[in-house]
Amino acid sequence: MLSRRRTFTLFVVLCLGHILLISAQVQSGQGRSVLHASAFGAVAAVQGGSAAVTRGAGGIWSHYFALVGVSRENEGLRARVLSLEGELQAERARTAETAALEEALSLKRSVIAPTLAARVIAGSPVPGTMTVTIDRGTSDGVTMNMAVISGSGVVGRIIGPITSHAAQVQLLIGRSANTGAMVEKTGDAGLAAGGFADGMLRFELLSSAATLAKGDRIVTSGQDGIYPRGFVIGQVNEIIGAGKAREIAIAPAVNFSHIDVVLVVLSRPAAEPAATPTPTPPAKGAGR
Amino acid sequence: MKTAVVVAIVLGSVLLQALLARFAIGGRLAFDLVLVGVVFVALQSGPVAGMLAGTIGGVLLDLTAGGLVGIGGLLKTIVGFGAGVMGTRLVVAKPYARALIVAAATVLHGFLSMALQAAIDKWPGLDWAAMLSETGFNTLAAYIAFAAIEGVPGALSRGRGRQRTAFSRRQW
Q1: Which of A54, A217, B53, B138 has the most CB atoms in a 10 Å sphere around its CB?
Q2: Same domain, A82 and A142
Q3: How many domains does chain B have?
Q4: Cβ of A15 and B77 within 8 Å?
């Protein structure tokens, strides 16, 4: 049993040790060591296993027991597939027309970014930290700062640590998460910043002369070199104040509480080729 | 409490937290089972064990989370020490009293975390819903854990007593 004075001394020493550790990382900007990556890799493997078990148990239930109403759902889905096929035909026609116009005007051809489908296997063990772990890593071609999207919009970007079969994604609503953004209808550009307690994003660095209204769609501008241009971020939810003091809240398009499958955009705007003779074929699971 | 038991509790709570983190994506549902483990150790064994458990648990959680290593360690060391001191000064024998200490520790941990984030980066803003959710879940988890730990040895000894009585009857 330590004396009260020794206990307090140990407490102070431990606290100072932690503060020094944090300061060293904040100053150097590097918090990811081999130990860090190993710990993340080990936990990601366990989390992947548990997610697979949970999914398996859920699958047994949904595939064998909870089949009530499946035929009705099938009919609905068939109708939806037909409608989507029609939409796809229209989009294909439009894409061909755009490509022809681009060629006629000698413009750079629009590149469809290749994507890779990934499953979310875990959230962050630290409450309040807006990160998730996906089951794709360096062996699938995933690298730092790749954009991650879902069917409804931008999810976030890959941050370290990345192991061979797991990577961490910083959600767009996370602390210090930013993305180049613009108002879709006017093209006025700014920055969508996360890290707010209400779960909304804030539209920052937008010209005070820019006009926008509640409900306007905000998309990525592609100027940050991470997120390709034109992906949906969300829509304007609230505008408080006016002029330079104007605060614009953006409701994210993605419901971050329910993300299961995401798409990793394998190329970054800066890394995209200047011109390609043929459009890049969409990768597996490419949604756009 | 033996060192091995303390380490096992901390490692177990880190593993459980990592496994259940899937249900806390998006931040609306929050819980911190490592904090519950640290407070449990602190109340059982005092401030020294509490702060050491906080250091180990916090650093391990930081390593698995991918952020700055040391933030969780510092916060949980302070909370572990505080809970240990409280445990030695106040009578906290009943599960509900211990669960209340966990609730207070969660709130303290939340505010300290915000202050530290403000010092390092920017003021994150207070999300009452997330804090209430975390406090509620932690308190409930702590109450269940404390009640189980208090109840299991008694139930086991009662079971053993019943077996012995039955055996005695058969003999006589």
Answers
A1: B53
A2: no
A3: 1
A4: yes
Query: Which residues in chain A are closer than 8 Å to B130, comparing Cβ atoms?
Result: 127-128, 197
Task: Give residue B27's pLDDT.
Answer: 62
With an 8 Å Cβ cutoff, are B66 and A159 in contact?
A: yes
Selected residue with higher pLDDT from A74 and B37: B37
The interface residues of chain B toward chain A in range 109-168, judged by CB-CB distance below 8 A, are: 113, 117, 120-122, 124-127, 130, 134
Question: Which amino acid, A216?
Answer: D
Could you tell me which of B78, B1, B2, B64 has the C-alpha nearest to residue B35?
Answer: B78
Check CB contact under 8 Å for A22 and B66: no
As a whole number of Å, the end-to-end CA separation of chain B is: 41
Same domain? For A73 and A132 the reply is no
Report yes or no: B5 at the A interface, CB cutoff 8 Å: no
Measured CA to CA, the distance from residue A45 to residue A166 in angstroms comes to 8
Residues A94 and A122 both lie in one domain: no
Checking if the pLDDT of A276 tops 50, the result is no
Q: Which of residues 36-55 of B touch A (CB under 8 A)?
A: 47-48, 51-52, 55
* Domain identity same for A175 and A69: no
Do A123 and A255 fall into the same domain? yes
CA-to-CA separations, A89 to A82, A86, A121, A139, A286, in angstroms, rounded: 11, 5, 34, 35, 16
Q: Is residue B68 less than 8 Å (CB to CB) from chain A?
A: yes
Which pLDDT band, with edges at 50, 70 and 90, does B129 fall under?
confident
Nearest Cβ partner for A195 among B64, B71, B124: B124
pLDDT for the residue numbered B26: 66
One domain, residues A156 and A251: yes
Domain interval for residue A56: 30-110
The distance of Cα A250 from the centroid of its chain, to the nearest Å, equals 16
Residue A284 lies in a domain: no
Domain that holds residue B146: 3-168
Query: In A, which residues are within 8 Å of B68 by CB distance?
Result: 22, 25-26, 31
| A86 in the same domain as A201 | no
The gap from C-alpha B140 to its chain's centroid, in whole angstroms, comes to 11
**pLDDT above 70 coverage of chain B, percent:** 86
Measured between beta carbons, the chain B residues lying within 8 angstroms of A31 are 67-69
Count structural domains, chain A.
2
Amino acid, single-letter form, for residue A82: L
Query: How near does any CA of chain A get to the CA of B66, in Å?
Result: 6
ipTM above 0.90, yes or no: no
Judge whether A10 lies within some domain: no
pLDDT at A273: 43
Let me know: does B126 contact A141? Beta carbons within 8 Å: no
Report the CATH number that the domain containing residue A179 is assigned in CATH.
2.40.10.340
